[in-house]
Design goal:
Blueprint (H helix, E strand, L loop, with lengths): L3 H21 L13 H13 L3 H14 L4 H13 L3 H13 L5 H17 L3 H11 L6 H15 L2 H15 L4 H17 L3 H14 L4 H13 L3 H9 L1 H4 L5 H14 L2 H15 L2 H15 L1 H14 L3 H14 L6 H14 L5 E3 L5 E2 L15 E3 L7
Antiparallel strand pairs: 1-2, 1-3
Helix pairs in contact: 1-2, 1-4, 2-3, 3-5, 4-5, 4-6, 5-6, 6-7, 7-8, 8-9, 9-10, 10-11, 10-12, 11-12, 12-13, 12-15, 13-15, 15-16, 16-17, 17-18, 18-19, 19-20
This protein binds zinc ion (ZN).
Zinc ion (ZN) binds next to loops.
Length: 391
Amino acid sequence: MNALNFLWLLLPVAAASGWYLARHVGGSNGVNRPSNGLRSDYFKGINYLLNEQPDKAIEVFIKVLEVDSETVETHLALGNLYRRRGEVDRAIRIHQNLIARGTLSPEQRNEALLELGQDYLSAGLLDRAEDLFQELSETDAYRVQALRQLIDIYEQEKDWEKAIVSARRMEKLTGNQLGGVIAHYHCELAEEERQSGNAPGALKAVQKALDSHRGCVRASLLEGDILFQSEDYERAIRAYQRIEEQNPDYLPETVERIHKCYSSLGRSGDVDSYLYRLMDRYGWITATLALAEIRQKEQGVHSAIEFIASQLTRRASVRGLDRLLQLELEEAEEGSTQHLRILKDLTSELLQDRPVYKCTHCGFPAKSLHWQCPSCKHWNTIMPIKGVEGE
Ligand SMILES: [Zn+2]
């Protein structure tokens, strides 16, 4: 442990304890001379820190606190420092001792509660943290902070009902719109219903998600998936197509789904017109490749090759080139594929392990679509990557 970190923290304490003694004890000859007691205890504590004996140091500081409640801020800072260093047990001891003092003002007690709650969070003691933050969410000064922490806890515990209640309270308190996030909580509930085989319950939860946020793409995808499973293809298509108004960036997610719906309905012509529209209006390579696949099935490999090649002249795409080379290899004569093979290996390597999605908030790269970023925990920030190497 680098004890020097603590010294800057404790210097004002040593000074304050001297000032305290000077005022309250005083010197016998009229000169303020803090002799023993607090000040020497602090130096003893600092000495323990310097000698890498943090537990003994904590004992001393806690003992001093019993006499002197003017050093609360320093104890809070000391506890925070321990937590930041990952020494959560020590942080908890310091903050618990602070709270146990009957001399703390209500503000000081709440501040110590907030810190202890964060210690518990760091230690993974979510139940204990939840109790503290619930208490703090009733106070004026820490209501918003406590609610923020509670929402975080409920997300970790996947307690979506409680997360919704806390987020609604937060909305009222701050005036910030949290409908986009609350919609995801309803979607999580819908997923749970769907997994337990309750399609009507899942659809109800999806509707609540859309009521919270009309632009919730996830709700539309989920609604379409549930309806597809129930073989209600017409309504599934309508749910998927709603995404175009919500956020066209997510339209590539609908390509395969809508394709399956129209195929199940035996309306292949409608697939074509939908995919052409996506390709022409947005340039999504996923739509181009899906059209190429249909051509390959209906008119053969050569037609698919010509189609992709003509599209690549309009818009460069590694995924498009990779598929083109794949088809060329299938068409080529045995023995004349050597150069094609080299090129195909190159594009495969370029695409291998390449993220398809990226968080617009923290830049986290992902191979699959997450609705909550695994890194920064923001909702709705993971988007398909666009450009030559992406969509
Ligand atoms: Zn992120």
